[in-house]
User: What shape does this take?
Amino acid sequence: MRFPPRITRIGALVAFMSALLIGGTAVVPANAA
Assistant: This one.
């Protein structure tokens, strides 16, 4: 199973964002700042 770098990068980004949302909304503003 081979995935193009673009799809892999997007998948990682989506997983990272979902992890932040699940982890807690309070953590996002702290990291953004």
About this structure: The two ends are 38 Å apart (CA to CA). The mean pLDDT is 75. The longest helix spans residues 5-23.
